Amino acid sequence: MDMKVLIVDDEEDLCLLLGSFLRRKQADVSYANNLTEGLEQFQSGHPDVVFLDNNLPDGIGLDVLPDWRRRHPDSRIVMISAMSNLREKALASGADAFLEKPLSFHSVEAVLR
User: Fold this and answer.
1) How far apart are the two ends of the chain, measured CA to CA in Å?
2) In this structure, are residues 32 and 41 in contact, taking their beta carbons and an 8 Å threshold?
3) Which CATH number fits domain 4-112: 3.20.20.150, 3.60.21.10, 3.40.50.2300, 3.90.1150.10?
4) What mean pLDDT, rounded, does the chain reach?
5) For 106, which of 19, 22, 49, 56 is 20 to 30 Å away at the CA?
6) Are 5 and 28 contacting, i.e. CB atoms less than 8 angstroms apart?
7) Would you say the pTM of this structure is higher than 0.70?
């Protein structure tokens, strides 16, 4: 799995655990703990896959999702949230997939195929 992955989430433990799993799969992983930093890395790094949390310190992932989708239509965007009721809205707003927290490695691997 040679791909660039950006994880945008303010939960440090989740970033470290998911990042470690993805690195074992040979992914190049970077992190952002808020939307502002996430957008900067998204624009400059052009990741293949973005894991985007919904509730972040400086805003809501679902609110920026359509803009991020327009900016980089080739990047896969995976919305992640503990609120499963956001699934349909996330997919309608441009997410390629929705994963409910807590994440399972099996579900992460499934969306990367």
Assistant:
1) 9
2) yes
3) 3.40.50.2300
4) 96
5) 56
6) yes
7) yes
